[in-house]
Design goal:
By secondary structure, this protein is of the alpha+beta class. About 35% of the residues lie in helices and about 35% in strands. A 5-stranded antiparallel beta sheet has the order 1-2-3-4-5, covered by helices on one side. It is rod-shaped, with a radius of gyration of 29 Å. It starts with 10 loop residues before the first helix and ends with a helix.
């Protein structure tokens, strides 16, 4: 007598198991791929925010400590900010979506995304103007207060639904300009 009680799986059972496992693996792959894209998007936004905030701090410090400030509006919504203190002149403007100081790009943390725009379209602008403040002091301070805004817009080239905009703002009191005005009067 021959005993035909082999224990094992049939070819159909194996094919069904492999099909289910493949579908599950592909699903996990797309979940991890989308999570990686989200991390990449967040990293770019974080770096650009850090870049704009650092640039805002540098320009604000120069305005605060300048004895002369000139703001020239450029067509297209940009400005050139010229500050002068102790015979040093600093010019700030946006060229190719990077902030330039005296003709050289500010290479601060996050600038690598502004140079390499393969996956994102980034536009950056600076806006600086005398602040619209109510004169609450006995002395006229309106001529010495400036509002500085650095705005960036980020759009993903890969994902048309991913867009973000951020503005870094600062209100600055030009201390040396005020002191210079008092000396001259």
């Amino acid at each position: 007598m021959i005993n035909n009680s082999f224990k094992g799986f049939t070819l159909i059972e194996m094919a069904a198991t492999l099909t289910i496992a493949s579908a599950f693996s592909i699903g996990l792959f797309y979940v991890f791929l989308n999570a990686n894209k989200a991390v990449s998007n967040d990293e770019v936004v974080y770096d650009i925010k850090a870049y704009s905030t650092s640039a805002l701090d540098i320009i604000s410090d120069k305005i605060r400590n300048s004895s002369q400030i000139s703001i020239n509006t450029i067509s297209g919504g940009g400005v050139t900010i010229i500050t002068q203190n102790n015979d040093e002149e600093f010019r700030y403007s946006v060229v190719n979506n990077m902030i330039y100081e005296n003709g050289s790009p500010l290479k601060l943390f996050g600038y690598k995304h502004l140079e390499n725009q393969d996956f994102f379209e980034i536009t950056m602008s600076i806006d600086c103007a005398k602040a619209d403040v109510e004169n609450t002091f006995n002395q006229n301070v309106e001529d010495f207060v400036y509002d500085l805004d650095i705005t960036f817009n980020l759009e993903s080239i890969i994902n048309n639904n991913y867009q973000i905009s951020h503005t870094a703002s600062n209100r600055i009191f030009a201390i040396n300009k005020r002191a210079q005005a008092e000396v001259n009067s």
